[in-house]
Structures are given as structure tokens and as C-alpha cells.
Amino acid sequence: AQTVTQSQPEMSVQEAETVTLSCTYDTSESDYYLFWYKQPPSRQMILVIRQEAYKQQNATENRFSVNFQKAAKSFSLKISDSQLGDAAMYFCAYRGTNFGNEKLTFGTGTRLTIIP
Amino acid sequence: ETGVTQTPRHLVMGMTNKKSLKCEQHLGHNAMYWYKQSAKKPLELMFVYNFKEQTENNSVPSRFSPECPNSSHLFLHLHTLQPEDSALYLCASSRGRRATNEKLFFGSGTQLSVL
Prior knowledge:
The complex is a heterodimer. Chain A is built from no helices and 12 strands. Chain A is mainly β. In chain A, β8 and β9 form a beta hairpin. Chain B contains no helices and 11 strands. Chain B has strands spanning 4-7, 10-13, 18-25, 31-37, 44-50, 53-57, 64-70, 73-79, 87-94, 105-106, 110-114. The radius of gyration of chain B is 13 Å and the shape is globular. The A-B interface holds A 4, 9, 32-33, 35, 37, 42-47, 50, 52, 91, 95-97, 102-109 and B 2, 40-43, 45, 48, 56, 88, 90, 92, 97-98, 100-101, 103-104, 106-109, 111.
């Protein structure tokens, strides 16, 4: 079974600085998708960024980018120029492509605090 | 606002009560999901519906009973719950269950407390 591990329960960063959230996963599949979701205090999970495993290029969405290391099964999220609105829980998630593995598997989350 | 609405936002119930959680989406999606979010644990997928048919039940106790009358509405009927069932229950939708690169659209959840 696939597992997703987020080893940092909490992180904090000074406003305007850069922070990296870690995520590792375990899978035997070669083709899959990885996601970072953000859950602000409103509780509504919102997709931040996604990465297809067959693409070598790291995904980027404005201030958010990932460092995808397929061999190491690592998928970290970098937030540049941190803003107060970035404060939230961040969840890493995996989704396989083999039949029966299509459900999203989430990590336990990292709570990010932005220090003004 | 992601287009997925959940009610009620908060719910307190006794172990002998019967209550229902409601989820509604106006995104034209065909797949809907119930997740359970407990503190310090990964989100747990409970049920999946695709075109109103239940396609997944992750060994959820029978005191949780889902209902999907149409592709826009999803219910979770609760009865004789236990205190350990207290959690945030999230509803989500997507265009289709098998589109693996698709994102899920989540509601704001129902925070359930079982006394």
C-alpha cells in the first residue's frame, strides 16, 4: 500500500522569506501523481500544486514550486516570499494510476505559521 | 469558495442520536467523496460515489450510512455513533473517479462532536 510521510508537524517562517515543506512517499508504481493541498482556518482544502511522475520538470505555480526527486521518492514544497495568507495546514497527497490505487493517500500534514 | 457546500458546519450529538450530514456541489462533477479528518492522522477516505453508484467503501462501520440521490448531492447518515467518531468530515467532488491527475474540490467540512 502507498504511504505518504510528512515529517514536520509544524513549521514557521518569517514573512517574505522562503520555506520548504518535506514529503516522502512509498510506492511500487512507476506512474502516479503527487499533490500539495492547503487547508486554511476556513477548513476548505485547496489544491496548491500537482506533479505528474513521468514529467521530470518540477511544477511551479507562482510563488509555489516543488522539488520532485523520483528516485528518492521525495516531493517537497517551496513557498517563496511567504505571505500571511499562506498560514495553513499543508497536506501532501499521492494518487496512483493502477486499477484500485486511484484514491488519494494523504500525509498527516504540516502546520505552517507565518511570522509578521 | 470551491463550489462544494457542506451543512451543518458544526454538529454535536449524543451516542443515541440520528443525524445527517449534507453535501452539495454545483460543478457538474460525477464523483463525490466522504473523508474523515482526525487530529494528527492522515485524511481517511470513507466512501466514493461515481455517477450515483457507490464504488468504494473503506471498511467503514455500518453506523455511517451514505446516500447519493443524484450526482449533485451526497449525504452521510449517522446513528449510534461513538466518541471516537468525533472528527471533521469533509466532502469532495471531482469530474470523474478514474481521472487520476484531477484535483478534488473540497467543502469546508462538518465538525462533529459525539458526546
